[in-house]
Amino acid sequence: MCGIVGYIGSSSAKPVLLNALSTLEYRGYDSCGIAVKNGSIAIHKDTVRVEVMQLTSPALDGTVGIGHTRWATHGKPNTINSHPHLSGDVAVVHNGIIENYLELKEKLIGDGYTFKSETDTEVIAHLLHSHLYGGIDGVFKLCDLMVAVQRTLLSLEGSYAIAALCSSDPGLRVVARKDSPLVIGVGNDEIFAASDVTAFLQHTKDVVFVDDNPSLNGLNIAGLTVISPAEIEKTIARKRIERVILAIPSLSEPRRTALLERLTHLNCEFQTLPSFLDILDGKGLASNLKTVSANELLGRDAVELDLPVEKET
Ligand code: GLU
Q1: Which of 173, 241, 246, 252 has the most CB atoms around its CB within 10 Å?
Q2: What is the pTM of this model?
Q3: Are strands 207-209 and 183-186 parallel, antiparallel or unpaired?
């Protein structure tokens, strides 16, 4: 067990985060760290107690931040392995275990990403970056952080509560709660996220439990976006789809490129058929098969497609 915290408000984030982390100490930890956003993201992390960090950390200005107490599961308890982890302008803290991190790490290394830590968590940071920028050399943002988080979830197996920050994105995004706890605290002009309510009870008693309530999904509370466990379950179900028939009429550029870009975010095999299948758009040819037209796919975000589960894993 460890703890994660997040803060958006008008107060200086650093003392709020470190205070919140100190209330989570009972959960056990071997190192701690914070990231504060003020234009760019500044990180301070170490293998010290929170009260030591409160005395020794450098000034970090900014009113948005995330924090973490780590209980190492992958990699030694040392400063490099402690959270937050960074990839470009993205910082992430994670509570839990990513079971398929080795296979994801191999793929990301093949794509040019360099790993600094031995943790499973660092794959999340690089996956977020690669969805945001289209790869290690990407310069322009292809989507916002919420979409990057949703797409990253498609690849993750295991347990997680995640808080992520991107310096070029105005908000803090939280993904929760696949077998790791996360609660939201709503103050007057500030918003908290934490593994446990004790982290923010001194600021607010208005608590939103990030449970299986689908209406939480995409909810933006003063800059903090919640992706609900119900949405995560849907995402996982989508991942199990093995085969979708896609009816592609003759497509001209740039629609073809846009379509291919969207397809890469769905983990299933596509078979293309002539456009006459467009008339079957959205109707199953068989109970376990769905046709999706290019028009439909281009008109919506691919990760939003409500495709049926073809095969239980
Ligand atoms: N698995 C992650 C790590 O080893 C997070 C551990 C935790 O939940 O503190 O860094």
Answers
A1: 173
A2: 0.76
A3: antiparallel
